[in-house]
Amino acid sequence: QVQLVESGGGLVQAGGSLRLSCAASGIIFSVNNVGWYRQAPGDPRELVAAITSGGTTNYADSVKGRFTISRDNAKNTVYLQMNSLKPEDTAVYYCNARRESYVTVYWGKGTLVTVSS
User: Fold this and answer.
1) 28, 42, 68, 112: least CB-packed within 10 angstroms?
2) H helices of 1-117, where?
3) How many CB atoms lie within 10 A of CB 56?
4) Is the pLDDT of residue 101 over 90?
């Protein structure tokens, strides 16, 4: 059974930092592209950052220079380091995983990040 479990969310003041983690099980993590998405109330889910199995990263323009995605294949875990947080970063953050050329996408249940002004 595939599981993606996010952790590290919480309440932080504007300008602060948080580090999100997503631990994967039931998949060959190293061959999966993984990403972080977020969804604020009333808004569609949007890509925040992604990292391929080969380590290539991609970021939404709104988080470039503030957020860093990384992965530790030995721990089957992907991280999202979030610095200089803004109130508009408030959302539920989800991780996902998809193997290249495969149709199935796996999602975690999300972790809530709240940034106060």
Assistant:
1) 42
2) none
3) 9
4) no
